[in-house]
Amino acid sequence: MQTVTKPTTTGSDPGAILTLPPLPPDLRPFPVPRRRRFLRVSWFFFRVIVHVFIVDILFNRYRLTRWYAQRTGVARYQRMAREFRRLAVRMGGVLIKLGQFLSARADVLPAAITDELAGLQDEVPPAPLPYVLQILIAELGASPERIFARFDPTPVAAASLGQVYYGELRDGRPVAIKIQRPRIDEIVEIDLSAVLWAVRVVKNYPLIRRRADLELLFEEFARVLREELDYVSEAHHALRFRVNFADTPGVYFPKPYPELSTRRVLIMERVDGIKISDYAALDRAGVDRAEVATRLNRAYLKQFFIDGFFHADPHPGNIFVRVEGPPPPQTNGVKPGAPFTLILLDCGMVGHLPPTTMEIMRGGVIGLATNDPERIVEALDRLGMILPGADRRPIIQALQIVLRHTYARSQRELTNIDVEKLFDETEHLVRDLPFQIPQDLIYLGRAISLVSGIVTGLHPDINLFEETQPFAQAMLDRERRNGDWLEEIRREVTALSQVAATLPRQMDAYYKAANRGELQMRVDLSRLERGMKRVERATNRLSGGIIAAALFIGGTLLRINGFADEAFWSWAAAAGVALWTVWPRNDR
């Protein structure tokens, strides 16, 4: 394949025209093996689903095999992560997006797994240059020589949907040129069809079916991903972020040039910096990583709770730190870190939060900062994250226990809490896990989890509760200044007046019923009902196990006595009964 050498300007004339070799005349269409790609992606998800069902669901049901599932969990998932990374690097597309999301979950996933997937932020191989130049020429309607004074043919970054080159416009402005991968829209559709197949299988599991409409979540994911393929929208998103953060020092979004950009080519201001996950480089530059973590966390709190418009793809490959100078001299025995600017790239994937959702979320974060579980549960309920009809009382009790173990602790301390003890204390309260995933919050949850993982990696001792408190206080002060506190008082007074008006009548009815001996006690039988169901399930499984064992032993005796056909059917019946016994049921 013909390569393009690094272009140069001729002579010393600053207006000299850039010359690039022409495209090969026999350039064939970029190959996309549709059927083979679909089968390879589907086969991987199929094997993962079968593995999780057998080892993590069935094995965990029985004491004899539970030790294997629990003891080998990290090693098994590390092997799967390694295999997924190889597949994603080889195939690109949606798999890279999924791997980048998981690699940033340092707050919930073991380092053995996130380390395996971290390479997906850098290992994406670039598409061949002739195909990229073909897209560039088709989109700009002219050869690169007419647009750029310099164009470096070596990509500085290769992502799942596009790759970035450095260049210089004819007026001398240094720019970054983001060009979509060849036929990436077709590749995305193939991958989405494979993921949809997996979603339609997994959604039938009862615990998942009750808590999320996976197909609706998938449709939201697919919609945003297709929007990310439109670089014109990405340019407008970047302009909006620049307006929102114009008065926020230390956070910067590069300037796009919409007049030069198209749907598949984005030209923007060139910026340089240190990748936020390159801890060694940050330390060498004298940057205080704790300050980086704090600034990133506060930048996203602003987006979530004030702007209602947030950068939804904050994986480490999209966040850089630009050092602005050497560290200042030490004062009062404290050595400050070097001044820096936080730079956020790739504004294609964004999320929008309506004012009502932001108001509810503000109430939730205030409840978290003030250790108020009732306010947190109220916010979760109003956001639609609690199943309709669920009893909020045990959820509040469980949250009280969780906050007792976690409140005001650093991220490092949180990784060392006794999870098994915590689960034992809360299992009887939220055994049915009465939570669901609303469709419109999928990218909010993704962004929160990604930022949490990055912040934890930067500064394991950060205390997110302490970080949230001043922000929550600022929101309370803002609400008071806006007069919202008057509305809150009005609601409270109205509620109290209604109680006061009905209280005498209720007390009179209570005493009359007591004198007549008609007081009734209401008993919540839900816990007893769940216990009876568990006993019933255990009895059914015991009976099924006895029947399966009897059929198996009978088949063995038939085989010993020469009745091979009868033995086969006896063993088949034993297998059927055993499968019926262990099959999960939605009878909780």
From TrEMBL:
Organism taxonomic ancestry: Bacteria, Bacillati, Chloroflexota, Chloroflexia, Chloroflexales
Domain of life: Bacteria
Protein name: ABC-1 domain protein
Organism of origin: Roseiflexus castenholzii (strain DSM 13941 / HLO8)
Family: Belongs to the protein kinase superfamily. ADCK protein kinase family.
CDD domains: ABC1_ADCK3-like
Pfam family, one: ABC1
Residues spanning the membrane: 41-59, 542-561, 567-583
InterPro entries: ABC1_dom (IPR004147), Kinase-like_dom_sf (IPR011009), UbiB_kinase (IPR050154)
